[in-house]
Amino acid sequence: MEEIKKQTIMHIDVNSAYLSWEAVFRLKIGETVDIREIPSVVGGNSATRHGIVLAKSIPAKKYGIITGETIHSALKKCRNLIIAPPNHDLYLSSGRSMMKILEEYSPFVERYSIDEAFLDYTHMDYHFGDPVTAAHKIKDRIKKELGFTVNIGISTNKVLAKMASDFSKPDQVHTLYPGEIKSKMWPLPVGDLFMVGKATATDFQKIGISTIGDLANYDIDVIRSKFRRNGVMVWEFANGIDDCVVSSEDYLKSKGVGNSTTIAFDVTERKIAHKVLLAIAETVCMRLRDQKSAAGVVSVEIKNKDFIKYSHQAKLCSNTDCTNEIFKTAKTLFDEAWKGEPIRHLGIRVSDLCDSNVYQKSLFDEKLHDRNKALDNTIDHLRRRYGTNSIVRACFIKSQIKPLIGRLN
DNA sequence: TCTGGGGTCCTAGGACCC
DNA sequence: TCTGGGGTCCTAGGACCC
What's the rounded Cα separation, in Å, for the pair A343 and A272? Predict the structure, then answer.
């Protein structure tokens, strides 16, 4: 009888990632206080309506501060809270440094998010020892060389490894092998299970499921009829079933690119909204060209002053990566969708991507298309060489709107 | 001096075709 | 003079993740 080869998967998760990385950076530039050791958060600015907590220190957590709450409310819980503004470039490079170390331990490392990765450790025992020993080595190396701590979860598949890394923090290695599911995972609240969010947890409560164990032992046919595919998936997770593989390729090519922003004031004029959309189109299209993709679908998202969200999308006749072309479509979509009420937030997202070298030039407007393309190339080149603000559209001069809105990487 | 921004995937419903 | 029914494509919205 053939022996079934068991996989060994690790999930590596940076503890309070943004805050840890901010702390390491501050120590490096000579600050004496480690913000991890005092009540502190990484968060935006309330004056520009970006005031929410993105990450918190452990001392801040002791005051009851939670991720996602407003800075205003966090300050009410702790008056001398330190607030560090977010620095996305720092987080990107910190995440990359960690990936480099991980890649020394396996050829199969999947970057799952800016601060999380899966590592396939199957057949690697010979090189670095048994999984627990290796995980400690990795964890301690990251701490020593990069200055921040991680949790590592170990199991036979991705979901169990991910659940394991979420056990007690920080700076810990945990296992959650199939034999440990009953004792370590089933007592947890069902909302702690990967892919069970607030809405599903509430629906589960209604039929008497409150722990992961309750879900695992529930009649699968009832789950299937009430919760469809997602229900079946989380039921399998609760029973430790997951056959996804660790894939190192996904992270770079995205299926869509989008940027959005909450504007510092409510927009009531169509012209101002168009200007914001242009500034967003600039970054979305630069990212699109950067990853050598062309978009087939453009979507505009509006959030009004009452936080009501709606969106409108359209398929293009032919794929494009041109700022002017995508902006033109976005403007039309906005005009069709906008109900005229004050706007808090605007976004553009493009999808249905194809390789920009492959796509067919539309036969109409070929000259215009070529001119736009040349313009985009020139602007991208100048911005790469001299900085993103080296060249700016004239309409943004003396405007309250920034000429480029949204992250570029 | 309330409530971010970047993603993926799924589903429901309508249009349209045979 | 009761209401077909697959299949596909498209859009809007919502759930979830970080």
Answer: 10
In chain A, pLDDT over 70 holds for what percent of residues? 96
Give me the A residues in range 199-258 that sit within 7 A (CB) of strand B.
228-230, 254-258
Q: From the CA of A196, how many Å to the C1' of B13?
A: 26
Which nucleotides along chain C are within 7 A of a protein C-beta? 10-18
The DSSP result for A6-74, as a single string, is: PP-EEEEEETTHHHHHHHHHHHHTT----GGGSSEEEE--GGGT--BEEEE-HHHHHTT--TTSBHHHH
Percent of chain A with pLDDT over 90: 88
pLDDT at A391 over 70: yes
Q: Is the peptide bond before A170 cis (omega within 30 degrees of 0)?
A: yes
Angstrom distance (rounded) from CA A162 to CA A98: 17
Annotated active-site residue A301? The verdict is no
Q: From residue A98, how far is each of A148, A150, A172, A368 by CA, in Å?
A: 10, 10, 16, 45
**Nearest-nucleotide field for A44 (CA, C1'):** B4
Top-confidence residue, A358 or A124: A124
Does residue A47 reach within 7 angstroms of strand B, measured from its CB?
Answer: yes
Question: Comparing C-alpha atoms, which of A14, A64, A66, A60 is closest to residue A36?
Answer: A60
Q: Residues in chain A, how many? A: 409
Interatomic CA–C1' length for residue A199 and nucleotide B13, angstroms: 22
For domain A186-238, is the CATH number 3.10.100.10? no
Point out the catalytic residue in the list A116, A282, A301, A325: A116
For chain A, domain boundaries: 1-178, 186-238, 256-396
Among left, alpha and beta (phi > 0; psi -120 to 50; other), residue A398 is left
CB A296 within 8 A of CB A349: no
A256-396: CATH architecture: 2-Layer Sandwich (3.30)
Fold category of A1-178 in CATH = Alpha-Beta Plaits (3.30.70)
pLDDT digits (tens, 9 = 90+) for A224-260: 999 999 999 999 999 999 999 998 876 667 999 999 9
Q: What string of DSSP letters covers A305-331?
A: TT--EEEEEEEEEEEE--HHHHHHHHH
**How far is residue A401's CA from residue A409's CA, in Å, rounded to a whole number?**
21
Q: How many CA atoms lie within 13 A of A62 on its CB side?
A: 9
DSSP state of A192: G
The answer to whether residue A3 scores a pLDDT higher than 60 is no
